[in-house]
Specification:
The protein is an alpha+beta fold. The protein has helices at residues 2-20, 61-128, 133-168, and strands at residues 25-36, 42-53. The chain is built from 3 helices and 2 strands, in the order αββαα.
Length: 177
């Protein structure tokens, strides 16, 4: 954004410069020259010049340069607006991703609690002789899946948070979900 804002400013200054090319200009120059032929006498020369330049017949070149500079300002301003909109979209998208990942963490945590309870019940049933080893194995597998899903949700949250930091241009440690 900063680089594009600077380009817009430069383009606006270029418009002013090109408009100045349509105005009359005055140039003043002066020179002094001293030449010594012998050691006793010297020759002094002074000269001055004043020039007035009025762009009368430039075939519309100055006007075309001003128009071109204004078009460059419009192009740079349009690019700046596009960049701002893209950044705003990226920030919104990353905020939504962080929220969604946080909800998935909560859901996965509840699933882990439910799987732990199922594992506890399956162990009790097997210990009492009512359940089978297959029930315990299935409960253990469900618990491992729930824990894996919870870990993946945490990973997604941290990745989303990092994307949000990049979008807004900050760098902090991620808050606890």
């Amino acid at each position: 954004i900063l680089a594009t804002e600077r380009a817009v400013w430069i383009a606006k200054e270029n418009v002013k410069l090109q408009q100045a090319g349509r105005e009359p200009s005055v140039n003043l120059s002066a020179s002094y020259h001293r030449q010594t032929t012998t050691g006793f006498s010297s020759d002094y020369q002074w000269s001055a010049a004043l020039a007035l330049s009025v762009p009368v017949f430039d075939r519309g070149l100055a006007k075309a340069r001003v128009r071109e500079a204004r078009e460059q300002v419009a192009e740079d301003a349009s690019l700046l607006e596009e960049i701002k909109q893209n950044i705003a979209l990226e920030v919104r998208r990353s905020v939504l991703n962080v929220r969604e990942a946080k909800q998935r963490i909560e859901t996965a945590a509840k699933a882990v609690e439910a799987a732990e309870e199922s594992m506890r019940i399956a162990d009790l049933r097997y210990t009492e002789g009512v359940g089978t080893q297959l029930e315990v194995t299935d409960a253990r597998l469900a618990l491992n899946r729930a824990r894996t899903n919870h870990t993946n949700a945490l990973n997604d949250y941290l990745s989303s948070y990092a994307s949000w930091e990049q979008a807004v241009g900050q760098s902090k440690s991620a808050p606890a979900p």
